[in-house]
Request: fold
Amino acid sequence: MNVMLFSNGKIAGNTQILEYGFEWIAPMIEKTQAKKLVFIPYAVIRGSYDERTEQVQQSFAQFDCEIVGIHTCDNPVKAIEEADGVVISGGNTWVLNRTLHDNGLIAAIRKAVLKQDKLFIGWSAGTNVATPTIRTTNDMPIVSAAILPALNLVPFQINPHYIDGSISGHMGETRDERIEEFLVMNPTEVVVGIPEGTMLQVEGDQLTYHSANSKPLKLFRHQSEAVTFAPQEDVQFLMDEGI
Reply:
């Protein structure tokens, strides 16, 4: 596999989407020679698909990549088959996942990534759908008939935009408490919280963690104290557990 799962699209000081990850994306583009990328903007709610596609094109122009918005394609499945890779935007995970299912793209993307080693890049909602299910998204289920199973490219749940802390005066649950609630109901699963400016990468069968700001990921298990891992630490076991 060649998979890059970013927590978010931008960090402070960035003017382009995934700017903080350009140094990680460059060698992956060179390795895979992925020059034609189909872009999936289905998660975008407060904006237009065309605008987001243009923003992504601006980011990937430096890699000599052509970005094709899947919403402009008559046959979305064929677009995946003909592309060198897939890029999925952040936005609302519930809308994104349902639209992927409605358009018959789950099997097409899984075949492209798992069988043909095509490049997959996602951030935020685009990262959520790479997991077995979207149950650990931060997004509201703003559509009816919501679908939970997702692409299952990695065998563990991810919580993008992870925040380790509480807000003064806020009486609701913290992010840690919400994740703990998930694990009470799903005790055999694990959740990986990735903060802003970070990325999980699968190259071949090797999983690594990268951070533009030295923030660690946080691993949650049922009835266990959460554990943090710095970018240089080994997280390969997450791929080997077969959750």
